[in-house]
Write a structure and sequence with these properties.
FAD/NAD(P)-binding domain; seven-stranded mixed β-sheet; Enolase-like, domain 1; 3 domains; 456 residues; six-stranded antiparallel β-sheet; alpha/beta
Amino acid sequence: MDFDLFVIGGGSAGVRCGRIAAGLGARVGVAEERFWGGTCVNVGCVPKKLLVQAAEYGAQAADARGFGWDIAARAHDWAALLGAKDREIGRLNATYRSLLERAGATIFDARAAFLDPHRLIVGDREITAGRIVVATGGRPTRLPIQGAEHAIVSDDAFYLPTLPRRVVIMGSGYIAVEFAGIFAGLGAQVDLVYRQPLPLRGFDADLRQALAEALAASGIALHPQTSMRAIHRDGETRRAVLSDGREIAADAVFLATGRAPNTEGLGLERAGVATDANGAVRVDAEWRTSRAHIYAIGDVTDQLNLTPVATAQGHVLAERLFGETARSWDFTRVPTAVFSIPPMATVGLSEEEAAKTQPVEIFATGFTPMRHTLSGRARRTFMKLVVDEASQRVIGAHMLGEDAPEIMQGLAVAMTAGATKADFDRTVGIHPTAAEEFVTLRTLTRRAGPEPVRAA
């Protein structure tokens, strides 16, 4: 075989897997056809957070007046922002390539596809590998509606030549609510259209309600329980036709209605690798596909589609295949953040999930952050703990508010270690901070779930 391990995909999962395997002495090849670093680095979490931070500066300039500063936010330079963003992404691209090269991996700037279970065509070269990892990530999808070709998707949003002044966004997941905040923060009129009663399906219901209120308070027009039927183009104007018959004129219509595994054209059928109806590669608990020597990690499996999860999977898999021991990650309590404005973060179970199987105690609070008692901005923070009644372990933590992602990382460590509500209660808070509220939540808000079984 030409390689002990060949990785298809140079994103977070593939680069980590290839780098660790090469460092353990394996002969490794990695192919990437588009851009090193994958979705997260190029058209995902990294540039998106930079845009979120840009959007926050206008509000901060306005808020400064409440603290005695005479600051005015004048016109925003979209081209300057994208230029700065592109320079940083270019630096990260080079870093990802360098990590692989320094580890001793052979890199291919080319598309790879299977010819059979052990043979690949990489660009115009045929190679063989003992083990193969599919780490090709995902891609944005478009609604199958009339005029969908007149809309943009998330990949396009990072390269718009000008900032649209009116934007209609269809969807209410991570991408939709984050870009709603970005465009609104930069001065655009934003309409957010979504089928659910509240945004961010799958998150805790109280957190979803708090986010909806925060989005509305920031001036975003919400259209819940509504879908988009068609998009018409009238010169440079797009008209979004909604399910209730309304039409909204906009400079851009943004379809943020989901992503699909990027498996088209990989020749998986020639290798005997099974996929599901959505194209996701089927894997077992150790990321093996239906072929024992072929693995799949990251978003291409459509399981926990988060960059740190993909990175951890790549690291563990490389150590399992070529190391003497493999580290372990806890994939049962994966923290996550949504960089809406304000941001939200969560770890563990929602109240709804937990209450299906066990009696739980709920501790929740909402308040105006200290900063906004002077700024006057209508912005609230919401915090919530879900506690298993029997063991008193904290099994869910949820927050909407400034610094929520930074705070939640520490709570994730505590929960992974098995912290109880008593552990939270006996921890001294840092004052004055929002974070201290998590260790001063003393009053039970409510109980939920099935009735506990009491000893006779």
